[in-house]
Amino acid sequence: SGAKEDRALIRLHDVGIQINHTEAGTPNFRIFVGGGMGRTPVIGKELRNDIAPHQLLPYLQSVLRIYNLYGRRDHKYKSRIKILVNDLGLQQFKEKVEKEFCLIKDIELSETLALVEKLKGHFPPPGEEDAQIQPKEIAVQHPDFTLWVKNNVLPHKNSDLRNVMVSLKNIDTAPGNMTSSQMRIIASLSDRFSRGEIRVHHEQNLLLPSVSSNLLYDLWQGLKTADLSRPNVGQITDMICCPGMDYCSLANAETIPLARELNQQLAAINPQQQAATIKLKVSGCMNACGHHHVGDIGILGVDKKGEQWYQITLGGRGGIDAQLGTRMGPAVRRADIIQVLITLVETYHALSFEKETFAQTVERTGIEPFRERIYEKDRSTKHVA
After folding, report:
1. Percent of the chain with pLDDT over 90
2. Class for the domain spanning 131-225
3. What is the pTM of this model?
């Protein structure tokens, strides 16, 4: 991640890199190792925070060499860096990496660095011509556009430009899904507004970088024609969702129908609930393709004697201060999971202070008030197990 706010879940990967700058303004790299989700979720640990640019590739190569030398090969579920770091301990793992690094840190890298410079040429920074476009005297009076700008448009280091998130989370489609027609429209819009650049986001959305702020209204209109202008980025309906039982042979439970039902229920009940700033992440099995471990609300599908049930976790988050969610209690039946999620949203609105996010509320109150609402004594015991 190259930003102060981690945007790449760097502590949930085998190796994560954060780019920082020294007091002199030169870049250096902070290295995390041993993160991961799946059946053994682990938050990555800091290995070094002072790697210079010319040291980065040799240092990462040292990490991979130690993994290659000592990593488990006798068990496919344990052949991960996170398992090795846990078995050796961070300090011993670091000592081995540093010893290896001393052997290779002075290897000639001129050809590799030349390749890096060449690759930079494919990603030139936006120039002044991208920002100096005359504005149209429209847009500001349009409430739908204003809401879209509020939720889906992000700042840019150039004050005349913006980064635009394109939500792929419509009410009646699978999260992250696009048709071929929508893809063609997005490709055309990227040529017009973001110099042909489209980035795929790990939260199952697209990002169009470096869009002139004066052209946001035109872009929004283009997205509307493709039904891609839903202003819900960062809200509960902007959920991450794996394919689930509809498409995956590993899944224990449905995920896409769950997402569709929740969208429909929230839209029918209350706009405030639909707009709740909650990161909901849904996985159909323990492999955690939906990143449920780090959701404000995490949902994990489980199989109980051929029936679909769902475990719920609360309080997970990504970022530099990443943490895994806490399991609330017994799993919930498929027939009850939508009402349980709505109850969690209602509880959040009842407990939260003004402008307080779901994560901030859970941090302040703990999960017990939410647990009490879900597992009330008068709740039929047949719905949980």
Report:
1. 74
2. alpha beta
3. 0.89
